[in-house]
Amino acid sequence: MTRHLQDTTTLHNGVKMPWLGLGVFKVEEGPELVNAVKTAIKHGYRSIDTASIYGNEEGVGQGIREGIKEAGITRDELFVTSKVWNADLGYESTIAAFETSLKKLGLEKLDLYLIHWPVEGKYKEAWKALETLYKEGKVRAIGVSNFQVHHLEDLMKEAEIKPMINQVELHPRLTQEEVRAFCAKHHIQVEAWSPLMQGQLLDNEELKQIANKYQKSIAQVIIRWDLQTGIVTIPKSTKENRIIENAAVFDFELTEEDMKTINALNQNLRVGPDPDHFDF
């Protein structure tokens, strides 16, 4: 059971990854971003998730440098993730994109590098590049994002190294049962993006009742549900009170009945694109 903000899951290659991290999707470069990363580190977060398409890797890097200095920790205590964008998928172009991300972040290595979307006909070459980066020690773990079961099966037919992570849209309205079952079978850790459904679940009556029972917020209940389901999660926030609140989920445990109630909210609803039908 996850008891602390710095508790970790062990990926299939032995690398330890925090269960809870900070996401920075669509947070623009600037003081707000830098302060959010610093604030998260100050309050005990040890995982930061960004991507090249977010256009904020430089600010994330600045926040990391300032944050670890102020918190008195080392870079090795952080787990930093970025992702290769669709336009850069391909062997050489993925290697180049990785080096660009590394430079913008101001880091010597990444902890996790992901293929952002399963662009048909391109992700296998990109995966070969990730395998090379992994073998060269430039990244501690490699994985994918938004891959459905058939994408994973297709990739793993030829992959030398299977993904360590599959980061997908996952929340109580999209519980991803099939993907989770496949990943569990193959020891691929599932990670949730948009765990709060971009705020659309924060007025749900059933979740409100559960939250009231524990004297917690709906966001805290959802994050706790993720953790008890064995899902790594990266809620996004730039506000200090929310960053603190999102991490205050280790002093209670949802009952089996409450877990079932939350699972039953699934409607296979997405707030992001369908991985089988996207055009960017």
Automatic annotation (TrEMBL):
The record marks K83 as: Lowers pKa of active site Tyr. It comes from Heyndrickxia ginsengihumi. Coiled coil: none annotated. The lineage of its organism: Bacteria, Bacillati, Bacillota, Bacilli, Bacillales. Transmembrane segments: none annotated. Keywords: Oxidoreductase. SUPFAM superfamilies: NAD(P)-linked oxidoreductase. Substrate binds at H116. The active site is at Y54. This is Aldo/keto reductase. Belongs to the aldo/keto reductase family. It holds the Pfam family Aldo_ket_red. CDD domains: AKR_AKR5G1-3. InterPro entries: AKR (IPR020471), AKR5G (IPR044500), Aldo/ket_reductase_CS (IPR018170), NAD(P)_OxRdtase_dom_sf (IPR036812), NADP_OxRdtase_dom (IPR023210). One of its GO terms (molecular function) is oxidoreductase activity. Residues 31-266 form the NADP-dependent oxidoreductase domain.
